[in-house]
Amino acid sequence: MSTMPRLKFKTAYEVFMDFVVYLPSGEVKTEKMLSKECYNAWLKSRRSQPKKPQKSFRKALLEHVCAKNSRKQFPKEVERSLLKHLRQRKTWHCFKGEASIGCYGFKGFGYHELQDMVDIDHIFFETLAQFMEDKNV
């Protein structure tokens, strides 16, 4: 009995990262991650078609931004660039004329943003503790 080779589907992360452009200057361009081409590539990479593909695409992208549900986070520079686009109060390019996804702008924090905030809080409280110790308070 011969077995058919299994098709290898790209992960959502791999699809999204295919649409990241690294410029020689070191700048990262991520607007293509919100393009119709990226959305269609993501749809083709799904083993079974989602019941609500537009909401599923949004959920997958934002879960990678926030590293939720064990999703692999984007590199820091990609997250920073992508958040600039996600926070704009306008419909994502891939959904123009179809859905209003993005029209309110993303108000959450990215994974690396939260990590930086935790680091700052940690430094603040260490400094405060040292100050209190020096003053014998």
Task: Explain the overall architecture.
This protein has 137 residues and is mostly helical. The chain has helices at 12-18, 36-44, 53-66, 76-86, 111-134, and strands at 21-22, 28-29. Helix content is 47%, strand content 3%.
Contiguous low-pLDDT stretches (5 residues minimum) are: none
Q: What does the largest sheet look like?
A: 2 strands, antiparallel
> What helical percentage do the residues reach?
40-55%
- Average pLDDT metric: 87
Determine the number of helices (DSSP H or I, runs of at least 4 residues): 5
Percentage of residues in DSSP E strands: under 5%
Number of strands: 2
Order of helices and strands: HEEHHHH
Round the Cα radius of gyration to an integer and report it. Answer: 20 Å
- State the separation between the terminal residues, measured CA to CA: 79 Å
Please give the order of strands in the largest beta sheet: 1-2
Helix/strand-derived category reads: mainly alpha
What is the fold's blueprint, element by element?
Blueprint: H1 12-18, E1 21-22, E2 28-29, H2 36-44, H3 53-66, H4 76-86, H5 111-134
Summarize it.
The protein has 137 residues and is an all-alpha fold. The chain has helices at 12-18, 36-44, 53-66, 76-86, 111-134, and strands spanning 21-22, 28-29.
